[in-house]
């Protein structure tokens, strides 16, 4: 069964520059993940991991890996999981304002 059929996909390279593992869930706004993860946050704006619902990806310290992201659907409003990234995604453009 295909995941997120018909959705635009983007691949980003992520490096965990932190000293601890970071785990990211399937529906988390990827641009707002832990600041220890280094990647193109503008490319990730308004997107989440293209993985099955309820699963996650673990990023080990010092390890680089590619992930595929798809656009968040629905109302495209992100709750205040990290307040500097919260709100209506399409009203803010593609640049996070932390």
TrEMBL record:
One of its GO terms (molecular function) is urease activity. CDD domains: Urease_beta (cd00407). It catalyses: urea + 2 H2O + H(+) = hydrogencarbonate + 2 NH4(+). One of its GO terms (biological process) is urea catabolic process. The keyword Hydrolase applies. It comes from the Bacteria. The keyword Hydrolase applies. GO terms for cellular component: urease complex. Keywords: Hydrolase. NCBIfam families: PRK13203.1 (NF009682), urease_beta (TIGR00192). This is Urease subunit beta. It comes from Pseudonocardia hierapolitana.
């Amino acid at each position: 069964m295909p995941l997120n059929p018909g959705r635009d996909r983007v691949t980003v390279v992520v490096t965990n520059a932190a000293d601890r593992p970071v785990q990211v869930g399937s529906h988390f706004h990827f641009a707002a993940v832990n600041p220890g993860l280094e990647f193109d946050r503008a490319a990730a704006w308004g997107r989440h991991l293209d993985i099955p619902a309820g699963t996650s990806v673990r990023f080990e310290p010092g390890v680089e890996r590619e992930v595929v992201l798809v656009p968040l659907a629905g109302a495209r409003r992100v709750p205040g999981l990290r307040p500097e990234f919260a709100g209506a995604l399409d009203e803010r453009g593609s640049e996070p304002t932390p």
